[in-house]
Amino acid sequence: MTDQYTFRNPVTAYGKISPPEQHQPEPGLDAELEPKADLGEETYRGTGRLEGRRAIVTGADSGIGAATAIAFGREGADVVLSYLPEEEEDASRIAGIIEAAGRKAVKVPGDLKDPNVCREVVDTAVAVLGGVDILVNNAGKQVAQKELTDITDEQFDHTLKTNVYAMFWLTKAALPHLPPGSTIINTTSIQAYSPSPTLVDYASTKASINNFTKGLAQQLAPQGIRVNAVAPGPIWTPLQVSSGQPKEELPEFGQSTPLGRAGQPAELAPAYVFLASPESSYVVGETLNVNGGSPTP
After folding, report:
1. Of 21, 72, 133, 254, which is most buried, counting CB atoms within 10 Å of its CB?
2. Nearest to 82 by CA among 66, 93, 98
3. Which domains are assigned to the chain?
4. What is the pLDDT of residues 10-38, one digit of tens each?
5. How far apart are CA 26 and CA 118, in angstroms?
6. What is the pTM assigned to this prediction?
7. Which listed residue (14, 83, 193, 202) is catalytic?
């Protein structure tokens, strides 16, 4: 079985997928995704880089968040999993994988559009894990619309609250508990630099996340708290089939990248591990692009 350390050709490492046209109601389930995404269940091999750490990962039930949570657990961290109640099936599976690695997995379902839920996530980490020193703001909402006039006030509000407000609320709640050496990692996107015409509201939030990351990184660096971001490209997750992409475009998803294929969540997890670990002690305010070769600033 290959793992993240195996020498291989990145063009063919995961194969090109041509997903069938499909749709799931929001927020979408990994359990129903076709084809299945690789979350690293069978391929991520930890080396103890996060031994004894205490992490919060939002959007941890599927996709990038789930792959990151699995990797953190296998690297030795206990993990609080934040997810929507509708995603319980996926979240329970990820919790089981982390527990099989010998670490704690604490499930906290709830909608992060509510600031009280954000505070509950942090309070649970402190109460159950004894503290927190890694915060991954990853949960996101993405709904494609061909015209600006198709974006309802409700969609715009929900996208901003899920992607930006929740990041602010979670970070603000976590800060009093973060000791020197802690890390905050925010999920931005290639959309922050190269917005798709169908993702105007989503892309705007990702640019905001990028800016928030770089400003906060300067503010917290003297305290020994590092803030960085990961900017994924086209990654195969339930987000894409729950209105994240026009369904007629799914068969070609990710094939326009220089590598010629979509990325898998398992390919993102090592980036989050690197930014969470002491290996990246001099990396502050960085946006680490994991996008298959698409140019960025």
Report:
1. 72
2. 66
3. 47-290 (3.40.50.720)
4. 999 998 899 999 999 999 999 999 999 99
5. 20
6. 0.97
7. 202
